[in-house]
Please model this.
Amino acid sequence: MKNIVIDFHVHVFEFETLTTNVVDLISRAYPNRNEYDALSKKYANPHAFLELMEQNGVDYSVILAEISPLSTGIAKNETVEAFCRVSPRLIPFCSINPYLHPNMGEMLEDLCLNHGFKGLKLLPPYNYFYPNDKFLYPLPFVCCSRKTWYTCEFSYGLFNFC
Model:
């Protein structure tokens, strides 16, 4: 039996905005910004990304939207949806920011049922809320209320740019 490899934390390379702190972090990881921009442009193409997965023995990748304009930037749900449409090997996870999306339960239900999202990524430290805040209460009901269960990921990765 073949082991299945899932990369469960992949950011799209196409962000609508990036904060200055994230750009600074990226600049330290690459020889120069032009090299990062070229890499981003290449792997913003889902077919090129699938080739990269193939080269590295990855069967599936969970592709994450991120709506954190104050901490990191914005990679829209629509961008992730379009990217993942190319292959079932690309698994879309949406992002909901409680301060920008007042009807989170309805939005999550729409994204999962009508746009193909398989899960939700929440970023409490990046979006300045706690996982037990009352405004999050509708989300577990949406994640568990259908025949298909949806995953809800709480991401707590903290970097020096927050």
